[in-house]
Design a protein that fits this description.
Elements lengths: L5 H33 L7 H17 L2 E7 L13 E4 L5 H9 L5 E5 L8 H7 L3 E3 L4 H16 L4 E3 L17 H9 L3 E7 L1 H4 L10 E7 L11 H27 L8
Parallel strand pairs: 1-7, 2-5, 2-6, 3-4, 3-5
Antiparallel strand pairs: 6-7
Helix pairs in contact: 1-2, 1-4, 2-3, 5-6
Length: about 260
């Protein structure tokens, strides 16, 4: 049998990507309805997290996206019975699904308050007990962080994107201090996470997913005990950013040398 021509393969990929958008919309609507319906039976929101993991796996698998996870040092020994703040770089919407697939512990995302008002999607996030922050009101934001810290102390892990938004050019942007302040107030470690390849799979502004591989590097937890002053938080923010930047560079070097990072 003659090999498939590149032009034909490209056309098939385009058709599949467009069909996948329909699947994405349909699965998101069904998942949101199921998530909302699960709340009376799972007030903790854990049923929603289960659905989010399943949704993420199916969404990436049907888009022919593979997630490769690498744990650095003791990162693979994340305790299931203690909370963490996971801090990851942000290049694409794919990052959210990749984290749900990669991380072995339940967690909630920190999201801006406005997302909670979106019909179905926002209601599903609320049913999952995601944590909303009012970024437009500094006083309200401080109260939100205090409530979020209490949630974390009670055992809820959270994930944040310290850059605040997706990168426009693929470079790692400056980090905000909110996540460090949250972890310090809660007294829990921060786990740096480097995500690579997601921007190529779904660039900013695109609704199509391309086939490919997302690499998720989970670093060693960084303690926040004794972090109180603004200066100390600044130092810790740079430490976390440096850890992520180093993992991104190591991943790039490994791929450039033809080596595949270990898969979890």
């Amino acid at each position: 049998m003659a090999p498939e021509s590149p032009a034909r393969a490209s056309r098939l990929d385009t058709v599949w990507a467009r069909c996948h958008v329909v699947y994405f919309v349909a699965s998101t609507l069904v998942g949101a309805v199921l998530a909302i319906a699960s709340f009376p039976f799972s007030p903790s929101g854990d049923a929603v997290i289960f659905l989010a993991r399943l949704w993420s796996r199916l969404l990436l698998a049907t888009a022919r996206v593979r997630v490769v996870v690498t744990f650095h040092g003791t990162g693979g020994a994340l305790a299931a019975d203690r909370p963490y703040v996971f801090a990851a770089n942000h290049a694409s919407s794919v990052d959210i699904w990749a984290l749900f697939v990669a991380l072995p512990v339940n967690f909630r995302f920190i999201a801006k308050k406005q997302l909670g008002h979106i019909p179905l999607f926002g209601w599903a996030m609320a049913a999952g007990r995601f944590i909303f922050i009012d970024r437009q009101n500094p006083a309200a934001a401080r109260r939100s962080i205090a409530r979020a810290a209490a949630r974390i102390r009670s055992g809820t892990s959270v994930a944040i994107f310290p850059e605040g938004t997706r990168t426009r050019d693929g470079t790692l942007g400056p980090f905000k201090k909110g996540g460090v302040r949250l972890a310090a107030e809660a007294g829990v470690p921060i786990v740096p996470i480097a995500i690579r390849g997601s921007r190529e799979i779904m660039p900013r502004g695109s609704v199509f997913l391309r086939r490919g591989t997302v690499h998720v590097d989970v670093g060693e937890p960084i303690a926040t005990a004794g972090i109180h002053s603004s200066g100390e938080r600044t130092v810790l923010v740079e430490k976390i950013r440096d850890a992520i930047a180093q993992m991104l560079a190591e991943n790039a070097d490994a791929r450039g040398a033809g080596r595949s990072p270990p898969t979890q």
